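**User:** You know discrete backbone vocabularies at least as well as I do. Would you mind producing a protein record, from residues through to fold? Write it directly below this note and I will take it from there.

**Assistant:**
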Amino acid sequence: MSLALGRPVTAALLAGLCVACGAGAAAPALPPAAPSREAAAPTAAVDPVDPSIPPAAAAAVADAMTLGGRLFDQDRASAAATDAALAGGMPPTAQGWITRRTAHGWRVDFYGPVDGQPASLVTVPVDDAGVAGAPVRHTPPATLDEEGRAMVGARVAAIAAFTPICGGPYNVDVVPGGLVGAPGWLVYFSPGTTDPDAAVLAGYVRIAVAVGAAGPVVTDVAPLSKTCVIVGGPAAPPPSAKVAALVVTHFVTPTATEAHVFASLRYRQPVMVMVDGGVFTVDDGRVTWGAAAAAP
């Protein structure tokens, strides 16, 4: 398994670029870290939950829209930054990357070890449209701040606890739990594919990590599906056909998840999530509900 951005070209160039490079790599002990400085609000304003959503599901759906939208924006920024950094040559000691919001968009740091601690080797700014600016190559490497070190620690700890559902590369994104009122960090593992005609609908994993004086501690491992579902590829419809929606069956949770919101945004298609009792439809970051018709 490689942990890399699952994009055409990028995935091949970054194969093997991971945090836990080398067998048995351990998460570094970190000083106490405050929660993310980022405000506990989604990257972009999320509309109120649709009236069609049952009240019992409203909170979970709201979190799914917030986290799925953030995951899409952050993943897009990470991919753009990776392409920009690779264009000038990735430092051979790079082990991974962390992506953070800034006042003007995103900051992506590609880091490696310096004297036993993670340091930024290359920083790439990315605007809110997903366009990368000029990479800043740090000579000598720049010390990461407390939050950056906490994010690296969370990422390393999550990788150590991660069991893939899909084969092939996975993208790794560290997201502040505070976006949905949760402590610590949420580390997402999103299956990648180098097939531009394929859509990954299931196989995502979310791992929650707390970072304190004793270092990062995994507090929850949540596979967001039981199986890997990748549609399209060689079986994609002919160019003359128009895809109305992507459909997936889901029984791990009673509602659509942030993975479905991310997939809808990533592939620019509605995703119909079939659950017990009806169908959640995810379209452009929005989730609606349709109950199954009662049997006659």
Remarks:
- The chain is about 20% helix and 30% strand.
- Residues 10-20+52-291 form one domain.
- The CA atoms of residues 215 and 280 lie 39 Å apart.
- Confidence is low (pLDDT under 50) at residues 1-35, 39-45.
